[in-house]
Design a protein that fits this description.
With 516 residues, the chain is an alpha/beta fold. The protein is 41% helix and 12% strand. The protein folds into 4 domains: 112 residues, no CATH class; 66 residues, no CATH class; 78 residues, no CATH class; 226 residues, Nucleotidyltransferase, domain 5 (2-Layer Sandwich), CATH 3.30.420.
């Protein structure tokens, strides 16, 4: 065991700290001693007026007195006696040319200060090695640092002590540890290919539909894992070698919520001859809209009427909830819910309508309010709205009042509107339908006894991590409003219908300056 540091060295350390040369840690590194030692000497100097070492138990029998007046335990053998003699008088602290101590004593374990160049070289050298070679390199560096080398290597070089100790054991025994790299497993595909899941989602979303019963948020896709893999190669230029196997793609699809087969209720009852052509056109139209900042895609649909009252909506709750067995709700206690979803931006907007009837006027009024108050200030570059619709009775391209109101909207706002309809019996592919599934799951098991309660529940749900913007429209709408055939023929002159798919793709261009 080495003796205490000399008093003049202690005074230099205390003076350096008191002169503001740095913190306890910085001064300790400068003089090659520990942070706690600097703290103890400074505290003793302030309290007692001197940093001199204290006696170690007095002049006990067989003890050796050092030149500084401290006592060490007496020798137990001739070899110990020689060692104690060295400690007591033959060793002096080693100092450099500037007078700073570089070690505890000449001939014993020493510490040295690492320059920034040395630190960088050691760190980079360790990174270039692997396994036992890396640990042995670290162990040799730690040994060269002297006393406290492991702690300094951890603090200054960022090496972990567990790895260092493992390397020291290998260095001392000469027997390397066997590394079990295979036990760590392989990295996930998305870690190797960071954009893989985003690209899969982009491919599958356009081919997916939601559960029409809204009992789950599961999506049902028409694409197999093989088709998705082939699309990744064709559309995103992946190579066959870097992509995972079909089984892995299938597992990723399941983890992302997609399922290849739907339950029987979600299978379309009919399929019109134009179905495939409509989906092909929708795919192209959506891709063009996503790539054009002047086009804003909006998915619109109205949910089934929401009944307000102490009614059971299914689901489960963590507290006891009592509800009526049957629907005794009056007409005034039923509200409509019209939704707008921006697929390319992940934002949802809800409009609760207190009117007993959901009409074409109500839908276009909500669209106009959404565009004027919210979307136009947010998307100043947009010159065209692409509306994804489900060809329902209130928003069909053959519904005269709906088309009349859309024309009025175009003339009033000066923006082009393109109507894109999903095929009959395939409206569940409309993205807003997935939002309805999440909402139904969110408030199931709760009593929507008032309109305010329903609004609060709608505001608290999230879809893709975003809360919807919810508004209430308290206006009564009349049913049966329609145009004459002559008036409708006049409107048709301004429509641009897609050849072969006239019912499903209609563009109402914005008026030119002369027409306005």
């Amino acid at each position: 065991m080495a003796g205490p540091y000399p008093l003049d060295f202690r005074n230099k350390v205390v003076e350096a700290y008191e002169m503001g040369h740095g913190s306890f840690e910085a001064v300790g590194i400068q003089f090659g001693i520990g942070e706690a030692t600097v703290n103890r000497w400074v505290s003793r100097a302030r309290k007692e007026g001197s940093a001199a070492p204290r006696p170690m138990g007095g002049a006990r029998r067989g003890a050796v007195e050092t030149p500084e007046g401290e006592y060490l335990e007496g020798p137990r053998s001739e070899q110990d006696a020689a060692t104690r003699s060295d400690v007591a008088g033959d060793r002096e602290p080693s100092v450099d040319g500037a007078g700073n101590a570089t070690g505890r004593a000449v001939g014993g374990p020493t510490t040295r200060t690492l320059s920034e160049l040395e630190k960088e070289a050691y760190v980079e050298g360790a990174k270039a090695l692997k396994g036992s070679a890396r640990r042995l390199f670290m162990a040799r560096i730690v040994k060269s640092l002297g006393r406290g080398g492991q702690r300094r290597a951890e603090r200054e070089l960022g090496w972990t002590r567990a790895t260092i100790r493992k390397g020291v054991a290998e260095l001392e025994t000469g027997v390397p540890f066997e590394d079990d790299f295979s036990g760590r497993g392989r990295k996930k595909s998305e870690e190797i290919l960071p954009l893989l899941l985003d690209h899969i989602r982009e491919i599958v979303d356009s081919q997916s539909q939601t559960d029409p019963t809204f009992r789950t948020t599961r999506l049902f896709t028409r694409l197999s894992a093989r088709a998705v893999r082939e699309a990744l190669i064709d559309r995103f230029e992946y190579t066959d070698e870097e992509l995972p196997a079909e089984d892995t793609i299938g597992r990723k699809l399941n983890e992302m919520g997609y399922r290849l087969r739907a339950v029987r209720k979600s299978q379309p009852k009919k399929k019109v001859p134009e179905t495939d052509a409509i989906f092909d056109q929708l795919k192209m139209t959506h891709a063009q809209a996503a790539a054009d900042e002047e086009v804003l895609r909006i998915s619109n649909d109205a949910k089934a009427r929401v009944h307000l009252g102490p009614l059971s909506r299914g689901g489960k709750a963590r507290v006891a909830v009592n509800a009526q067995d049957h629907d005794f709700v009056k007409a005034e206690d039923k509200v409509h819910l019209d939704g707008f979803y921006l697929p390319d931006h992940g934002q949802t907007f809800f409009f609760f309508l207190t009117s007993p009837h959901l009409t074409s006027d109500a839908i276009v009024d909500c669209l106009e309010q959404l565009w004027t108050e919210t979307l136009r200030p947010r998307f100043p570059k947009v010159k065209k709205l692409l509306l994804d619709l489900d060809n329902g009775p209130e928003n069909s391209s053959r519904r005269t009042q709906f088309m009349n109101r859309i024309v009025e909207f175009v003339r009033k706002t000066g923006i082009t509107v393109e109507l894109a309809y999903y095929p009959p019996y395939h409206s569940k592919y409309n993205p807003i339908e997935r939002v309805w599934g999440v909402l139904e799951q969110h408030w199931n098991g709760s009593l929507l006894d008032t309109l305010d309660t329903a609004v609060r529940f709608a505001e608290s749900m999230t879809y893709k991590g975003v809360h919807p913007v919810v508004q209430v429209v308290k206006k009564a709408y009349q049913k049966g409003v329609a145009l004459t055939k002559k008036a409708m023929r006049e409107l048709e002159r301004g429509f641009e219908r897609l050849d072969g798919l006239e019912k499903y793709f209609v563009t109402i261009p914005a008026p030119t300056s002369g027409e306005a």
